[in-house]
Amino acid sequence: MIFVTVGTNEAPFDRLLEGVHALNLDEELVVQHGPSTIRPRGAECHEFLAFDQIVEFMRAARVVISHAGVGSVLVALANDKHPVVVPRLRQFGEAVDDHQLAFARRLHREGVLTCAERREAFELVVISGHQPVPPRRRPGDLADDLHTYLVDTAQGTAFQ
After folding, report:
1. Is 62 domain-assigned?
2. How many domains does the chain have?
3. pTM above 0.90, yes or no
4. CATH for 71
């Protein structure tokens, strides 16, 4: 099963859902679409889901596809998933700035998630079934990494 979440942002994320819709899938697909207008073919679609439902779907999923929101990423990682993330971008009106891009690129470099900025990369990862194994980390490592990222952001060095 593939689980897709766009989070709870009030802005639509049609760009992500168009990418999911374009995939030629032969497996169960569950999508939390928020205010987006796209409904990927063959998907079980939900506007919003309760937190416990999101956790349940993530645990059952072969692949978790998400926006690059901190909460969604942390929930996926806490459930031993290596999420494929598509950052919301300011240029498309999906976010007020490109903080998700900086966050996703940083965690991609650390091997914590797969940042799919281009549709080709996104399709390859999802269709091929390639899911990198998340690195085994001490329980506090992720919190430490997030703290470092937030400090770097406050100091203006996170985008480097």
Report:
1. yes
2. 1
3. no
4. 3.40.50.2000
